[in-house]
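Hi support team,

I've been running sequence recovery on a batch of backbones for a student project. Most finish fine, but this one hangs at about 90% for roughly twenty minutes before it completes. I'm not sure whether the input is malformed or the queue is just slow. I've pasted the structure tokens below so you can try to reproduce it. Let me know if you need the job ID as well.

Thanks,
M.K.
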């Protein structure tokens, strides 16, 4: 029997070794197949951009490109539109539009780049298959907007849905302890209240009404529609009847008719995936670089963690840029609802050091709130889109209490302690009055630190920050009015400003260095958590569960947005 097990484990070891070799060989072959071959653009070309379901901010890894989960990122789209404007062979852009998870703010930035493209005299076409207010908003930037006879245009206004879990958790014996500072800091409400507070209601209504105002006015301007509110009130549009007459679309075409239109005009299509491999006509200066650092996800402590902004991982990148004399300025692209207060403060502290040597410009994406605002507020300049979600200057502590669950399951728990406060923050019992007072003092102190540093970064009085703080979420157009951001603009605007602040001469095109660098295929395949990070984490449920896990597993204060705002 002993001999059998010896042979068995030897064979098992050989099989395991062969599997590793197979993975390595496969990775090398796939990597060689994926080496970008330069593509040339034929005369009279149309750049075809298919609106993806998900458009990440960070660089896309090789494995994601292979699995076709994300063939390109947001910056790829922006830079391709910019490159298409410069290439004389490209005569126009065709947007294929369908339902998408892309944010309003990203749509806004793409729309701005399309306007710059149109300023060169080139045309933008949009083919609307299906979509809602957000998708139609982007389509409205086109010179010509077509839709399919079977298109569904869900142009019917916005809604925000908040779900409260308090009674649900109570049924299984779980309750939550919370301490916060900020009357609008409502991240804890779904866990401790049964209904929405008046402050939370006021904030949510302001957000969706402000977003509605921005995009509806832009649609009206783009499409020359005077009665846009009435048209939206009468939506959705489930048939093509009246679409042309109301100027919502220019023509109704089948796929074949659309292709015939472009063929008759001697146009040839080039896809975005291919266009990314077209050589940029601009000559870049490698001695004058601008680093673009993408900070996307919830903020947590520790080293690099897939799907999150970690303080150690981010600071490691910033230290590298601090030492690199060729990097003249840093653009920090923030897309984060916040997270750990201490991790946010660590990143803030290094930015404070970094900007003494080089300009640091922040470009806010879809959301840069709470901890996301914390790591932005001391930049030399803050750019935001009109529909960026930001602010939420506030702090909270949330802790689950499992005593009721233990009782329901008839679990008996015994603990022993050496000191009176050894069980402080134990999840078995509720906070005592003394413990609550101690935690409130800590939260209040951190909030004071938050608004003090925000006041310094924004050159405002602490009382002014406190007045617009209190955990309140603002959208970009309101945030600029109250001084939380400096300018409306996207990533390309922030890069242009960084060049100016770094005093890079006019006519010199700085090389853009993008961080974090995507992992090589072989490294990602050999990662222990590859399946989790590549298949589960990027799903909507996966991101929600990982955020809840981070929210509840550590007894620390959070600078986190009230909830995941998904406006529909």
């Amino acid at each position: 029997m002993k001999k059998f097990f010896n042979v068995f484990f030897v064979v098992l070891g050989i099989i395991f070794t062969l599997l590793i070799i197979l993975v390595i060989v496969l990775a090398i072959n796939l990597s060689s197949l994926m080496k970008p071959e330069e593509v040339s653009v034929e005369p009279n070309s149309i750049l075809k951009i298919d609106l993806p379901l998900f458009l990440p901010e960070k660089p896309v890894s090789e494995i994601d490109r292979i699995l076709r989960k994300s063939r390109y990122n947001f910056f790829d789209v922006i830079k391709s539109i910019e490159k298409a404007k410069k290439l004389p062979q490209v005569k126009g852009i065709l947007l294929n539009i369908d339902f998408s998870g892309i944010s309003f703010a990203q749509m806004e930035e793409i729309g701005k780049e399309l306007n710059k493209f149109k300023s060169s005299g080139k045309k933008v076409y949009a083919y609307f298959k299906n979509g809602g207010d957000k998708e139609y908003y982007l389509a409205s930037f086109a010179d010509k907007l077509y839709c399919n006879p079977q298109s569904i245009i869900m142009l019917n206004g916005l809604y925000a849905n908040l779900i409260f879990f308090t009674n649900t958790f109570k049924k299984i014996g779980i309750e939550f302890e919370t301490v916060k500072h900020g009357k609008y800091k409502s991240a804890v409400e779904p866990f401790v209240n049964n209904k929405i507070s008046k402050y939370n209601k006021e904030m949510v209504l302001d957000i969706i009404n402000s977003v509605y105002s921005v995009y509806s006015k832009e649609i009206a301007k783009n499409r020359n529609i005077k009665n846009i509110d009435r048209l939206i009130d009468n939506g959705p549009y489930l048939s093509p009847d009246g679409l042309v007459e109301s100027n919502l679309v220019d023509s109704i075409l089948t796929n074949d008719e659309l292709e015939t239109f472009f063929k008759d005009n001697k146009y040839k299509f080039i896809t975005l995936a291919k266009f990314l491999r077209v050589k940029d006509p601009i000559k870049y200066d490698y001695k004058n670089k601008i680093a673009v650092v993408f900070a996307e996800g919830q903020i947590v402590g520790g080293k690099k963690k897939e799907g999150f902004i970690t303080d150690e991982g981010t600071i490691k990148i910033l230290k590298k840029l601090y030492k690199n004399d060729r990097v003249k300025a840093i653009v920090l692209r923030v897309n984060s609802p916040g997270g750990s207060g201490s991790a946010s403060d660590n990143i803030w502290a290094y930015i404070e050091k970094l900007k003494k040597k080089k300009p640091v410009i922040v470009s806010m994406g879809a959301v840069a709130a709470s901890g996301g605002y914390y790591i932005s507020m001391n930049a030399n300049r803050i750019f935001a889109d009109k529909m960026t979600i930001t602010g939420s200057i506030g702090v909270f502590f949330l802790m689950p209490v499992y005593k009721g669950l233990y009782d329901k399951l008839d679990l008996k728990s015994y603990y022993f302690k050496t000191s009176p406060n050894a069980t402080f923050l134990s999840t078995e019992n509720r906070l005592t009055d003394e413990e609550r007072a101690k935690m409130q003092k800590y939260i209040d102190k951190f909030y004071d630190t938050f608004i003090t540093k925000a006041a310094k970064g924004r050159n405002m009085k602490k009382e002014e920050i406190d007045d617009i703080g209190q955990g309140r979420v603002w959208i970009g157009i309101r945030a600029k009015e109250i001084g939380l951001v400096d300018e409306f603009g996207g990533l390309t605007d922030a890069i242009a400003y960084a060049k100016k602040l770094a005093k890079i001469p006019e006519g010199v095109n700085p090389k853009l260095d993008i961080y974090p660098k995507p992992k090589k295929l072989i490294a990602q395949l050999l990662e222990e958590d590859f399946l989790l990070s590549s298949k589960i984490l990027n799903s909507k449920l996966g991101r929600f569960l990982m955020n809840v896990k981070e929210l509840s597993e550590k007894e620390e204060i959070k600078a986190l947005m009230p909830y995941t705002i998904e406006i529909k």
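--
Follow-up from support: It reproduced on our side and the slowdown came from queue contention, not your input. The chain has 22 helices and 20 strands. No action needed from you.
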